[in-house]
Amino acid sequence: MRGVVDTGDMEVDTGDMEYAHGDDYEGLVSNRGESSRRVEASAGKPVLSNQGALAVSAASAVPVIPADSTTSAASAPDLAPAPADVQDDATPIQSRDGEVAAGIPVPHGCVVLAATPIGNTGDASLRLIALLQQADIVAAEDTRRLYDLARRLGVHVNGRVVANHDHNEREKADALLDEVEGGATVLLVSDAGMPTINDPGLAIVRRAIERGLPVTCAPGPSAVLDALALAGLPTDRFCYEGFVPRKTSDRARRLRSLRNERRTIVFYETPHRIAETMDSLLEAFGPDRRMALCRELTKDYEQVRRGTIGQIRQGVIDDPPRGEIVLVLAGASAEDVNEASPEVLTAEQLARLAQERAQSEGVRIKDAIAEVVKEHPLPDGSFPNRKEVYQASLSLRDGA
Q: Domain range holding 157?
């Protein structure tokens, strides 16, 4: 059933999914789309219009800054004009003279992991700006993206910039840490979010710990926490599982191992694999487990689809999602755990079951073993060894 939700100045077309309020969780869809909340103007106070632009009263001296995915809606009144060499459609939120970030302490002789915006440049913290300006060395996952972020922020990176990615971070770790030992500030950034979380950085952190060198964080945007907060599922206990495995067999095994997980589960996924992953979720957890599909978080087209696995899967078929995706899955209930807890059978017990099936259904013993093994997965999601079960069946036959 199609429907349109009236949310003040914004209408959300919910497609074929029913929109529900209150405790009726299933089918709930939120979508910021291109509209934003309308806030009435007050003297000298910035307001966010429904066109997404930061507006101020005519009497205010605060510069107008578009609040889109590349700018901040929280600029200081004394923001200096953008320099001529910064070419952007939006006014940078930070001038190169460092006025906004002045006074932000930057540690020396330390590795600093700094979170970068995951889609909206306005989420960059003043601490990140100060670190970009003042760090002696900036180790970036992609130097081109680093310079693009600096350009959008209006920040001049004064330190030496080096590439630090999955393929070279182990060999670069000690050289960077030698600089730290000499008193340098080494800033570690990834393309988006916090380094080490599905991004480079872990090798340097581990090596710094081994060498007794200080490591700290400048926290910031997190797709995991954003999705968790928006999903409407329990947040008191959760686990992060990273990207869903690519191979079908590995994915099925991982998901089977999580059937009895009581905590809320968070995954990353890509648009070109989401359909296969939804099929695997349906097979592992059934159609009724609650979940949320979050995409393009913090961006203009941010969307959260909430419902059951069956509903979300159908939505993926009817309207394939684009952009970066975070999946949030409800944990198992006590009843789910009691019903799904696998009984671990020995190879001999499985062999007996296979022999009984082979006799009753008139199938080959090998086929019966394959069916029985598939019906009795182990707690880690893997299956019993079929060769061992077959050998046990031969021993039973010979001993009969």
A: 92-218
Examine residue 105 and state whether it is found in any structural domain, yes or no. Answer: yes
Average pLDDT, the chain: 78
Residues 6+ away with beta carbon under 8 Å from 261:
239, 331, 332
> Which residues 6+ apart lie within 8 Å of 317 measured at CB?
275
Determine the Cα–Cα distance for residues 237 and 226; give it in Å rounded to an integer: 15
Task: Work out the angle at residue 159's Cα, subtended by the Cα atoms of residues 157 and 160, and round it to the nearest 5 degrees.
Answer: 110
Q: How many residues does the chain have?
A: 400
Amino acid symbol at 62 = V
pTM for the full predicted model? 0.64
Residue 62 falls inside a structural domain: no
In this structure, are strands 160-163 and 54-55 parallel, antiparallel, or unpaired? unpaired
Tens of pLDDT along 6-64? 444 444 344 444 333 333 334 444 454 433 333 333 333 333 333 333 333 333 333 33
pLDDT tens digit sequence for 307-354: 999 999 999 999 999 999 999 999 998 777 766 656 678 888 888 888
Q: Does 246 lie in the same domain as 349?
A: no
- Which of residues 339, 364, 386 is at a domain's end? 339
Number of domains in the chain: 3
Question: What is the rounded CA–CA span in Å between residue 12 and residue 302?
Answer: 13
Amino acid code (one letter) for 59 = A
